[in-house]
DNA sequence: AACTCGGGGCA
DNA sequence: TGCCCAGAGTT
């Protein structure tokens, strides 16, 4: 079947696919993912080791003023929102969740700066809960390949969950995002060097014209 | 649906 | 120099 061929091809292409953000526990991944909104994973990984060395737990962030945290994360951009969201999230983690990162979607999405994509990243990578985090890469690649035919991120996620075995949800996210970053680019997809174009819906559509 | 946050990385 | 970056909140 086409879907299983696509999945097995991606597995062969990206055997080492994994989370691009450095983290040692759910809290570090949560903060790193908030920081990663519209920033590169390399930029985030550059500042988080020092950040978590100085502030290892949610409680350690509480004494910080917004200005102090902004200064620490300035080099990745969009730092004002991120600093505000991180401080508010740490306050909630301490006051409502006993200083721990909650492991359910509703609680995660109640945290400032945490949307569905970030919640899925934390659930799947830090807690082992099967989930598919749909960002712009996954949305684009999944719809091009034909793993989804959806106009929205949420509908793409639902279709992927229906088309992919649950035990592969987490790794499928890493396969698709890696393929999007390395081959299936937004502007100029490298179809000529892509092993998947024989089964790619978008490639067939383009070549028929 | 459109707008805002944003300095750094990289061609 | 110009474009993009593992998004989310507000209006």
Automatic annotation (TrEMBL):
<keyword id="KW-0479">Metal-binding</keyword>
<dbReference type="GO" id="GO:0003677">
    <property type="term" value="F:DNA binding"/>
</dbReference>
<keyword id="KW-0234">DNA repair</keyword>
<keyword id="KW-0326">Glycosidase</keyword>
<keyword id="KW-0227">DNA damage</keyword>
<dbReference type="InterPro" id="IPR004036">
    <property type="entry name" value="Endonuclease-III-like_CS2"/>
</dbReference>
<dbReference type="GO" id="GO:0019104">
    <property type="term" value="F:DNA N-glycosylase activity"/>
</dbReference>
<feature type="binding site">
    <location>
        <position position="200"/>
    </location>
    <ligand>
        <name>[4Fe-4S] cluster</name>
    </ligand>
</feature>
<keyword id="KW-0408">Iron</keyword>
<dbReference type="InterPro" id="IPR000445">
    <property type="entry name" value="HhH_motif"/>
</dbReference>
<dbReference type="GO" id="GO:0006285">
    <property type="term" value="P:base-excision repair, AP site formation"/>
</dbReference>
<dbReference type="InterPro" id="IPR004035">
    <property type="entry name" value="Endouclease-III_FeS-bd_BS"/>
</dbReference>
<dbReference type="GO" id="GO:0046872">
    <property type="term" value="F:metal ion binding"/>
</dbReference>
<keyword id="KW-0540">Nuclease</keyword>
<comment type="similarity">
    <text>Belongs to the Nth/MutY family.</text>
</comment>
<dbReference type="InterPro" id="IPR005759">
    <property type="entry name" value="Nth"/>
</dbReference>
<feature type="binding site">
    <location>
        <position position="194"/>
    </location>
    <ligand>
        <name>[4Fe-4S] cluster</name>
    </ligand>
</feature>
<dbReference type="GO" id="GO:0051539">
    <property type="term" value="F:4 iron, 4 sulfur cluster binding"/>
</dbReference>
<feature type="domain" description="HhH-GPD">
    <location>
        <begin position="35"/>
        <end position="182"/>
    </location>
</feature>
<dbReference type="InterPro" id="IPR011257">
    <property type="entry name" value="DNA_glycosylase"/>
</dbReference>
<dbReference type="InterPro" id="IPR003265">
    <property type="entry name" value="HhH-GPD_domain"/>
</dbReference>
<protein>
    <recommendedName>
        <fullName>Endonuclease III</fullName>
        <ecNumber>4.2.99.18</ecNumber>
    </recommendedName>
</protein>
<feature type="binding site">
    <location>
        <position position="191"/>
    </location>
    <ligand>
        <name>[4Fe-4S] cluster</name>
    </ligand>
</feature>
<keyword id="KW-0378">Hydrolase</keyword>
<keyword id="KW-0411">Iron-sulfur</keyword>
<comment type="function">
    <text>DNA repair enzyme that has both DNA N-glycosylase activity and AP-lyase activity. The DNA N-glycosylase activity releases various damaged pyrimidines from DNA by cleaving the N-glycosidic bond, leaving an AP (apurinic/apyrimidinic) site. The AP-lyase activity cleaves the phosphodiester bond 3' to the AP site by a beta-elimination, leaving a 3'-terminal unsaturated sugar and a product with a terminal 5'-phosphate.</text>
</comment>
<feature type="binding site">
    <location>
        <position position="184"/>
    </location>
    <ligand>
        <name>[4Fe-4S] cluster</name>
    </ligand>
</feature>
<keyword id="KW-0238">DNA-binding</keyword>
<dbReference type="Pfam" id="PF00633">
    <property type="entry name" value="HHH"/>
</dbReference>
<keyword id="KW-0004">4Fe-4S</keyword>
<keyword id="KW-0255">Endonuclease</keyword>
<dbReference type="GO" id="GO:0140078">
    <property type="term" value="F:class I DNA-(apurinic or apyrimidinic site) endonuclease activity"/>
</dbReference>
<dbReference type="Pfam" id="PF00730">
    <property type="entry name" value="HhH-GPD"/>
</dbReference>
<dbReference type="InterPro" id="IPR023170">
    <property type="entry name" value="HhH_base_excis_C"/>
</dbReference>
<keyword id="KW-0456">Lyase</keyword>
